[in-house]
């Protein structure tokens, strides 16, 4: 049954999705100021909306405290994220969009496409489990496939892994990563942490038979990349 007409408003969906996204990425407690920055609105606007969401049973928030989704709020957020991430995948796979273009397009489409349309996309794509940025796609029943990963910026010297996810909220950053040929599925190893320079020296390779390339990566970019924690990736240096 298509339940598009029973959906919450666009603003409600946007807010609960941002709360979930901030929680999911593990960057610390979700705060009003953090939400305001992501949504490009004032703190007072966020506070007002949180009162409405709390009254609807979608969030838990006490004054000056962090924000958390309720079970009902999580269900709404996962539904929106499923639409968003499937749309991104379809735009890249079927329509040839680049990974820096799809986020803004999906932000618009996620509120207007029907559930029937979204499920047709999922079937057409073979029920993918991640989108073009490596973000997990919630299943139809609201399950998130497990993904063990760590931020590249937090990896120790000598640690390696495979890039499995990238933050998709900054198109310019995505274009920069494309320009320096860093993307999902590539093996990476931290050669040296350079905290005073605000960067990491890394080696990255796109395949077993491809020589590793040295790169200096700023911490802003490193904080947007997640690597697998299963021990895969380039071997540690023997030097």
TrEMBL record:
One of its GO terms (cellular component) is cytoplasm. Keywords: Activator, Cytoplasm, DNA-binding, Manganese, Repressor, Transcription, Transcription regulation. It is found in: Cytoplasm. Its main location: cytoplasm. Residues 1-70 form the HTH dtxR-type domain. Belongs to the DtxR/MntR family. This is Manganese transport regulator. It comes from Nocardiopsis algeriensis. The lineage of its organism: Bacteria, Bacillati, Actinomycetota, Actinomycetes, Streptosporangiales.
